[in-house]
Write a structure and sequence with these properties.
The chain is built from six helices and 18 strands. α5 runs parallel beside α6. The N terminus is likely disordered. Strands 1-4-9-10-11-12-14-13 form an eight-stranded mixed beta sheet, covered by helices on one side. The protein starts with a strand and ends in a 6-residue tail after the last strand. By secondary structure, the chain is an alpha/beta fold. The chain is 19% helix and 31% strand. The longest helix is centred in the middle third of the chain and has 14 residues. β7, α4 and β8 form a beta-alpha-beta unit. The chain has one domain: Metallo-dependent phosphatases (Purple Acid Phosphatase, chain A, domain 2, 4-Layer Sandwich), CATH 3.60.21. InterPro entries: Capsule_synth_CapA (IPR019079), CW_Biosynth-Accessory (IPR052169), Metallo-depent_PP-like (IPR029052).
Length: 312
């Protein structure tokens, strides 16, 4: 991991109060402290966003036979070049781990996977997706608790768009806000998400919004995705980063803000077509122009490698 930045305030364990409504379970945390990151060198901070990460089911079996670090071997050094790596954590760490069988879609992860992520410089886990609640509220709370115990950062909630689930940090005097929304629910409350963006928006901060959305395996974005992206940008988002379709989708721009409709898969156990074994690693450089670079990856049996690297 690069040493260009120093975390000044430590992570704070959040305690959760529960409120059951008619439609969904809302989880309201005590807000963690704002993280302050001090720039030590002059170059701007570099973030890296990955697509969907799933370390259960057949990936867990492969790791058991080939080693825990098997999925990361060919990208590990690349991940360590960045100041902050952010991934879509598509699963749950339930109190009792029961391995997910092939063909099942309720993803259970071992808590030890968090140590592996940390060793590979993946520090921020996006939880605004359709699998974080696979084991209900207890599974969600246990997931968040284990994430904090590893000094990692959870962002977002599968049903709640509150700003309490945002992650904010500062680089010198520049505030960065990360949001993670799940729009795969039957009716996504876009106004609630927009209100959160408006609440957090200031004249000089940067809001990076990740959203779980779209139609699986579609190579182009839908009209609904475009409409949601535009609304979130109008509310104050400076960039939209999409996950969920399991394939790379096209990119766009609105009001001079970039939209990455889907980064595709990062690590998954889908092998039935080439497109589900490809993805983008999105580099975001925190300079005045919010520069981005796309690093394409391909994967062989849940082991990604940079596309320009030889396939071996």
């Amino acid at each position: 991991m690069k040493n260009n930045y120093l975390v000044i305030t430590g992570l704070v364990l959040a305690f959760f109060g529960l409120l059951l409504t008619q439609n969904q379970l809302e989880v309201t945390p005590v807000k963690p402290e704002l993280k302050i990151i001090e720039q030590i060198e002059e170059q701007p901070m570099r973030l890296l966003f990955t697509g969907d990460l799933m370390l259960g089911r057949n990936v867990e079996k492969i790791m058991a036979s080939r080693g825990n670090n098997y999925p990361f071997i060919r990208v590990s050094e690349f991940l360590k070049e960045f100041d902050l790596v952010i991934t879509n954590f598509e699963g749950s760490i339930p109190i009792e781990h029961i391995p997910t069988e092939s063909g099942e879609f309720k993803f259970s992860f071992r808590k030890e996977v968090l140590e592996i992520l940390k060793e590979n410089n993946i520090r921020v886990l996006l939880l605004g997706n359709n699998h974080t609640y696979d084991y209900g509220v207890d599974g969600y709370l246990n997931t968040v608790s284990n994430i904090y115990q590893q000094d990692l950062v959870p962002v977002g909630h599968p049903f709640n768009q509150s700003s309490d689930f945002a992650y904010k940090f500062k680089v010198k005097n520049q505030e960065i806000v990360l949001l993670s929304f799940n729009a795969t629910v039957p009716v996504f409350p876009i106004e609630s998400a927009m209100n959160t963006v408006r609440e957090l928006d200031t004249a000089d901060n940067i809001i990076l919004t990740s959203i779980h959305w779209g139609n699986e395996y579609e190579l182009t974005h839908s009209l609904l995705q475009e409409q949601l992206a535009h609304k979130l940008i109008e509310a104050g988002s400076d960039m939209i980063i999409g996950t969920h379709p399991h394939v790379i989708q096209d990119t766009g721009e609105y009001l001079d803000k970039k939209i990455f409709y889907s980064l595709g898969n990062f690590i998954f156990d889908q092998y039935f077509q080439d497109e589900v074994q490809e993805g983008y690693l999105l580099e975001v450089i925190l300079n005045e122009s919010l520069e981005t670079k796309i690093h394409k990856i391909k994967s062989i049996y849940s082991q990604p490698y940079l596309a320009e690297s030889p396939a071996i």
